[in-house]
Structures are given as structure tokens and as C-alpha cells.
């Protein structure tokens, strides 16, 4: 356990150091970093349901939209304090998790995927057509940001520290859950549902719990996303966005917190690095993702772990041979 805690702390330190290193006055780079932090929180939540329990969830964009629009409406039209509005995200996540969790008890595979896609599209269409409430296609403007007594978020660069704090907290909580009794129950359901049920695991309760955790993480990420942009519109919450989050999960390594961080970083930053190729950058990005999926089906992080273990064994053998 101490070794695991040490590893996750190392990952947090590396993440923090890299982000602080790249933190600068350039608004574009800072926007990408802020988006990365939101994506990490989102993928950590998706990992509970898709990575650990093996239930395909393509409703992530819809969950994100509900969090973003609820926070935006509460802090603009309703005039709520941003921190109180953020606390309301737990209620939003709980409601969405229960609403999607119960259908998942009777659906799986292709049918569950269609259900979650339908949910995401319903949310997007509501955001588009409820013009008086959401601003419709014009979007929602002047969303308030989270602030503290000693820290005012007047610019995207300032908002970075609040986003970083929430990201580190989300990583620690996710790591604790993944390596707890809950996490082992999630994995048991993914690997062999019948055996898990025979062992006394309440399948229904665990599935709903996983959906609820995923929804809460997504709703919080949506609120933070709306805060740093101060503007949202329905075009940001498409099914393609949900597929992008699943790609982050798969490329980094399913079921692994460090893999979630790595996958979110690659899929968020790589397209920005390829933009210099203009019209071809998206083709290049999709090609790279396809090659990675074929060559590294388990994700990059498991490959890195295996490589490090192999190098350790080689070094041990070499040192033993030298001493002999």
C-alpha cells in the first residue's frame, strides 16, 4: 500500500511540475492546460464505469453538459454563489448516475451504448432548443468563476491554480477508490459478472454506484469547464466528444489512474501540436490513435510498467553476474 501511495504521489508531483513549467502568460497555451485539467477529472470519472466495471458509457458529453449548464444557469440567471453552485453538482451527478444506472442493470453492450448516446443527444438538443434558459445556439455568457478570499480568478491564467487543486484532489480520491474494496468489486464485475455475484457482490448496487461516481466527476468537470471559459454552447457536447473521452481512457490504459492522466494528456495535447499541418492534422491524429490501438491495445501505461520491470530484471541480472 505504501508503494502504491508513493507511486500516485510521484505522478501528482510530475503532473504539477510539468504544468507549472509550461504555465506562462500565453493565453492559448494556458487554455490548453486548463482544458487538460478538466479532461483528467472527466476521464478519472469515466474510468469508474467503463474502465473498472466494463460498462460502455458514451454519455460523458451529456453529463459534462448538464454540469456545465447547471453551474452556468445557477451563477448567472439564479445569481448563486459559485461555490454553492459547485456543491449542487453532487446532486446533479447523483440524479444522472441513478437515472443511467438503473437502465444499465437490464442493458449491456451495444444496447447500453445506444442508450447512453441517446441520453447525450437529448441533453444537447435541450441545450440547443431551451433558448430562454440556456441561450440556445448562441450559448450562455458571463458565467462566474470560483474565487477564494485570497485568490481572485480574473483571468484564465489565474484560474489555473484552482483547477490544479481540484485535479489533484480528484486524482487522490480516484486512486483511493480504485484500490479499495469498491475498486476490487468493480473489477470483479468486469472480469466475471457471474463469479462476482456468486461471491456475494451486489451487482445492481455496484453498477449504480459506478455510474453515480462517474456522473459526479463529470458534473464537477463541467462546472470547472464552464468557469474557466465563462461561456458554453451546445456544439462542445457532441457524441464525438464522448468518443474522444473513451479514446483518452483506452490510449492511457483502462482501469489505471496514472493511465487516465497519461491518456488525457496525449489526446488533449497531441492535436494542438499537430495543428501546424492545418487541414491534415485531424487525419494524422486519428492515424496515430489507430496505430496505438493496434500496437498497444492495453494502453501506454501498462506498456511502460512492463518496460520498467523488464529493465529492472535486466539490471538485477547484470549486477548479479558482475558480483559473481
3D structure, described in words:
This protein has one domain: ABC transporter involved in vitamin B12 uptake, BtuC. Helix 1 packs antiparallel against helix 7 and helix 11 packs across helix 12 (257-273). The chain is an all-alpha fold and 324 residues long. 76% of the residues lie in helices and 1% in strands. The chain is globular, with a radius of gyration of 20 Å.
Number of strands: 2
Q: Which band does the percent of strand residues land in? A: under 5%
Order of helices and strands: HHHHHHEHHHHEHHHH
- CATH topology term: ABC transporter involved in vitamin B12 uptake, BtuC
Q: Largest sheet at a glance? A: 2 strands, antiparallel
What fraction, in percent, of the residue positions are helical? over 70%
CATH architecture: Orthogonal Bundle
Summary tags:
single chain; 324 residues; mainly alpha; ABC transporter involved in vitamin B12 uptake, BtuC; two-stranded antiparallel sheet; 14 helices; globular
List the SSEs and their pairings.
Elements: H1 2-22, H2 27-52, H3 60-75, H4 82-104, H5 110-129, H6 131-134, E1 140-141, H7 156-178, H8 181-191, H9 193-198, H10 203-229, E2 231-232, H11 239-252, H12 257-273, H13 281-295, H14 300-323
Antiparallel strand pairs: 1-2
Quick recap of the structure?
With 324 residues, this protein is mainly α. The chain is built from 14 helices and 2 strands; from the N terminus they run ααααααβααααβαααα.
Amino acid at each position: 500500500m505504501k508503494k502504491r501511495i508513493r507511486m500516485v504521489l510521484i505522478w501528482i508531483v510530475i503532473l504539477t511540475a510539468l504544468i507549472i513549467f509550461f504555465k506562462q502568460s500565453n493565453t492559448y497555451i494556458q487554455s490548453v492546460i486548463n482544458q487538460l485539467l478538466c479532461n483528467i477529472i472527466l476521464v478519472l470519472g469515466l474510468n469508474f464505469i467503463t474502465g473498472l466495471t466494463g460498462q460502455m458509457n458514451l454519455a460523458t458529453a451529456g453529463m459534462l453538459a448538464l454540469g456545465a449548464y447547471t453551474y452556468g444557469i445557477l451563477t448567472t440567471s439564479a445569481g448563486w454563489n459559485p461555490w454553492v453552485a459547485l456543491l449542487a453538482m453532487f446532486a446533479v451527478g447523483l440524479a444522472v448516475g441513478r437515472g443511467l444506472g438503473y437502465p444499465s442493470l437490464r442493458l449491456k453492450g451495444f444496447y447500453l451504448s445506444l442508450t447512453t448516446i441517446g441520453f447525450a443527444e437529448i441533453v444537447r438538443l435541450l441545450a440547443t432548443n431551451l433558448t430562454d434558459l440556456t441561450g440556445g445556439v448562441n450559448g450562455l455568457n458571463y458565467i462566474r468563476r470560483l474565487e477564494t478570499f485570497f485568490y481572485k480568478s480574473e483571468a484564465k491564467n489565474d484560474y489555473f491554480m484552482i483547477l490544479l487543486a481540484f485535479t489533484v484532489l480528484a486524482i487522490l480520491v480516484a486512486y483511493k477508490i480504485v484500490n479499495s474494496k469498491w475498486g476490487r468489486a468493480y473489477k470483479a464485475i468486469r472480469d466475471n459478472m457471474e463469479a462476482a455475484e456468486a461471491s456475494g457482490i451486489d451487482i445492481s448496487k455496484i453498477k449504480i454506484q459506478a455510474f453515480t461516481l462517474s456522473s459526479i466527476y463529470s458534473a464537477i468537470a463541467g462546472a470547472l469547464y464552464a468557469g474557466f471559459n465563462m461561456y458554453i454552447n451546445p456544439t462542445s457536447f457532441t457524441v464525438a466528444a464522448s468518443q474522444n473521452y473513451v479514446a483518452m481512457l483506452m490510449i492511457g490504459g483502462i482501469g489505471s489512474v496514472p493511465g487516465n492522466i497519461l491518456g488525457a494528456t496525449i489526446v488533449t495535447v497531441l492535436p494542438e501540436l499537430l495543428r501546424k499541418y492545418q487541414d491534415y492534422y485531424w487525419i494524422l491524429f486519428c492515424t496515430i490513435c489507430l496505430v496505438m490501438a493496434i500496437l498497444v491495445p492495453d494502453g501506454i501505461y501498462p506498456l511502460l510498467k512492463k518496460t520498467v520491470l523488464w529493465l529492472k530484471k535486466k539490471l538485477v541480472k547484470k549486477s548479479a553476474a558482475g558480483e559473481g
